[in-house]
């Protein structure tokens, strides 16, 4: 296996896993065969590097580089530094969003050893489940569970599209659902978490730099809109007799665009629409759609959502439909720990600081432990699409930067 200290080679190894022939790119939902195969790939590389791979109840993998002579338990691992990211993807996503952070962490371990670094504290490489929320609907589900930021009972019962619960699916993947929930003891033992991630935007392209530090993540959330009408025949039903939820959904989508454009630099997206039953010659009985709304101001996000909800309710009344809007997850604007960011800046003096519109596990953990992020330039500026990428030199620069930051945190 080896691919020693080479994140590009590590990423190349997984290029064939979870390829989505229909959509293009990769579809690696959490605990799917593809994501489980990636977990096996990660565990094999971690084990080959002498890291002790463990599972917790939340679906997170922890690969430990323990300090020689220290016990492999909470005591011996107190003050740990953690790095890592996620391996699950959006439908039809790229091979870098998540895996770049995991591969770079493995390569950084190699680099630290090549440098002869003797860590004074333990290091763990973590792989978080369901960062994209593509299977169970809540983004950063594993890090939210760890941080106590989501109700474990709600999560245990969360159904995926087939109706299978998180508890059942995670149990099939070898996790113990009875252990799902906050892990304050584990968090108390972590001195800092640093996630490396491919940049999902154009900041580093415009700056002409390979690596950046993260400043803040803008507020973002997702809302499920369900519109119920009356199914009927497309030809036999007069227009005056219709209660067509698709017409209401169209108004929702139009108003989301309108209200988002009315707020400077807000982002509003409907990327998923399910029409039931979905026949060309059938007036739908129901539509489910999900809104993703983001802005630096949490109030602006909430205002856009409430304005669009009000407009949707008006449209539903006109059409004789019933609408329900349910918040699935919401993350306020977070700024990463200034002391940790300053310390990372002392190590990476040339790295600019960039804010991001993308959510990350680091954004959730920033609430409970000192957390920082590194971004690696993505020459396409695009993400959540097969074209997402990072150039080999920039990937190597990212590993060097991560190793520099980890060396500082592990030895000082
Ligand atoms: O949706 C996001 O912002 C992240 O990529 N999960
Ligand atoms: Mn990601
Ligand atoms: Mn993503
Ligand atoms: Mn992330």
TrEMBL record:
Keywords from the UniProt entry: Hydrolase
InterPro entries, sorted: Amidase_Cbmase, Bact_exopeptidase_dim_dom, Peptidase_M20
NCBIfam families recorded: hydantase, PRK09290.1-4
Assigned protein family: Belongs to the peptidase M20 family.
Protein name: Allantoate amidohydrolase
Species per Swiss-Prot/TrEMBL record: Leifsonia kafniensis
